Structures are given as structure tokens and as C-alpha cells.
Amino acid sequence: MKTQDYHEGGPLEVVAFRVNEQEFCVRTISVREIRGWSQSTPLPNSAPDILGMINLRGTVIPVVSMARKLGMTAAAPNPRSAIVVVEVQDTVLGLLVDRLSDLLTFDGSTIQPVPEMTGGYDKRYTEGIIAHADGMICFLNLDRMFPDVAKLKAAA
């Protein structure tokens, strides 16, 4: 879904989380469950953002380090870390985040486009920015973050 679709307004429910002290969110409709941190089994020769795989009630799913996926330095997982289990293009995967923030509801018209900057950053993963009383949240687009999600599923 594109940012323009939200400008018409209406409620937008998101799961907010922190990665390297920055706030991000994804639509709750993409989230299947939220789990505490558990060790994953590494996959040989996998991409740097793939931590490994976990067994989710009999189904093996890949776990992605959101810090690495977003080009940040990954901190070691700790008791506050969480795995946000999402479904992207009919594939289930886990997103390792530093900690959960909240479940929030916004009016879709409050989403602002990411500002244009020359030579600064790659904004393809971003749906927009949500400004609220406690700061700003980067609204992520999981379909654009994981265009080759079928390869992740095959790896697991």
C-alpha cells in the first residue's frame, strides 16, 4: 500500500518497536505474533541480515536482524529483545528488534512522506513518517523490505 492511500484518513493500527534507539513500526495486519528472544540456528552462507532460523510450533522460519537489514550496527540480543513474527507475501518470518514500544492507532492522514535528501539515504523501505507527541516513528513497508521473501522461505 502506498503512502497516498493513507492520506484519505481512517484508523491505522501499528506495532511500534525500537532498533538502535530509533523508533519504527509496521502495520498490525502483517504481525502474526510477538515472541521473546530465543536463540536461532545459523544458516551457512546466508545474507548478513539473516540471523538463522527458529522452530515456530513445528514450522521453521527465518529470523532477520532488523538492525542489519536497516544498515545499522546490531546490538547483542538481551532479555528485552523480541521477535516480531510477520507474514510478508504469504511467507512467515521473524524480525529481531531491540524492544517493543507499543501498539498504536493513528489517523492515516497523519503519515508524512519521507523528505527528499540528496545523496543521503535509501528510503525504499519507508512508507512514511508518523509524528506524534513522543517523537517520530518511521513507518516501514515490509513488501519493499523483503521483495525476495520466497528465497528466505526456501533457505529455512
Structure, briefly:
By secondary structure, this protein is mainly beta.
Explain what you see:
It is built from four helices and eleven strands. The strands form two sheets. A six-stranded mixed sheet has the order 8-1-2-11-10-9. A five-stranded mixed sheet has the order 3-6-7-5-4. With 156 residues, it is mainly beta. 12% of the residues lie in helices and 47% in strands. It starts with a helix and ends with a helix. The chain is globular.
Biggest β-sheet description? 6 strands, mixed
Poorly predicted runs = none
- CA-based shape: globular
In round numbers, the mean pLDDT is: 86
H/E element sequence: HEEEEEHEEEEEEHH
| Helix coverage percent | 10-25%
Strand count? 11
- Distance from N terminus to C terminus (CA atoms, Å) equals 27 Å
Number of helices: 4
Rg of Cα set: 15 Å
Strand content is over 45%
Major beta sheet, strand line-up: 8-1-2-11-10-9
Class by alpha and beta content = mainly beta
Give the helix/strand layout.
Layout lengths: L2 H4 L4 E9 L2 E6 L3 E6 L13 E7 L2 E7 H4 L12 E7 L2 E7 L1 E9 L3 E2 L13 E7 L2 E6 L1 H4 L3 H7 L1
Parallel strand pairs: 2-11, 5-7
Antiparallel strand pairs: 1-2, 1-8, 3-6, 4-5, 6-7, 9-10, 10-11
